[in-house]
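---------- Forwarded message ----------

FYI, see the 2-polyprenyl-6-methoxyphenol hydroxylase-like FAD-dependent oxidoreductase record below. Original note from H. follows.
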Amino acid sequence: MRTAAVIGGGIGGLSAAIGLRRAGWEVAVFERAPRFAEVGAGITLWPNALRALETLGLDLAPLAVPQVSGRLRDHHGRLLTEVDGARFERALGKPLLGIARAQLLDLLRDAIPAADLRAGTTITAVTGDGRVRWDGGELTADLVVAADGVHSAVRSALWPGHPGPAHTGHTAFRAILDDPGPLELSGLLGPGTEVGMLPLTGGRLYWYLACESSPDVRHADPKAFLRRHFGDWPEPLPSLIEATPDERFLQNDLLALRTPLPTYVRERVALLGDAAHAMSPYLGQGGCQAIEDAVVLAAATVRHTSIADALRAYDRERRPRSQAIARRSDQAGRLGAQLKNPLAVAARNAVLRLMPARLSVRASTAAARWTPPGPLTAV
């Protein structure tokens, strides 16, 4: 049986492990953290990710909340555009789903035998011929999947000329509230700032605020900072800030690989997810693209008996699409949350208000129009 080592136990790494197992591989997943978990954030799963997860044999219905409708307003509370969930679902054949990242990770992890999950393991070296080393151990795999995130150590080692991630000029505050009251999918868009609200199962709400910031600036009291700068914004934002316990706030700078990689593969090693194409979040496609990567990689190993041929096919299919979406996400950010000039903001808002619903749906769903390459049947 062919063997694969997956480095990174996040959404992309676990999805890759599931896909490769379905394709007949023996898989070991290495995660540096002491346990496979992520708390305090949600994720929007677009129909392309839902189709990929179905290909992996996973059912999200009990865990995810279909987003039926939504509104985007400016920072004065004036309506910019509305999202018709029924029109959206007709366009793509599936709804937009909201889920807590921790729940999605639990679902993915539960699909993998516990013996194949190695938490608390720091990889110290990876070579192109498939050798993986950690403190106290070493193995040689037929395939190494590097899903170790935006600061990928594997990418740094095997693509030494790449400059790595760049700061987008924004930082994000995120939190999940347990019982915020009835709230719908919605957002606020102001100069240099974007706010989003995503209902989750159990009456919970995931909300985030991305605003302009220099790199590595942290606030000892996030609530005080947000109250001071955004306390006069339209409801429900001020109430969400006040209702969020101090310990629930997460803050992360928004990073992206602004220099595209010339290839996602090197000998027996494949980069996947943020390690390959970390993108700004303005299309909501980062995690979705990682799940796509996982399905395409597994399917390529089914179609091609040669590892080299499979990895060439993976790179050929994934690199153009994921890098194009990363560029579109950057463009969406420049025209959205990063726009600050008052005249440009006013012009942008006017365009949004005048745009017909069908054009708005077409623009927002373009990245989600993707079909999996086929079933993952072991050869």
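H. also flagged this: Residues 144 and 269 are 5 Å apart (CA to CA).
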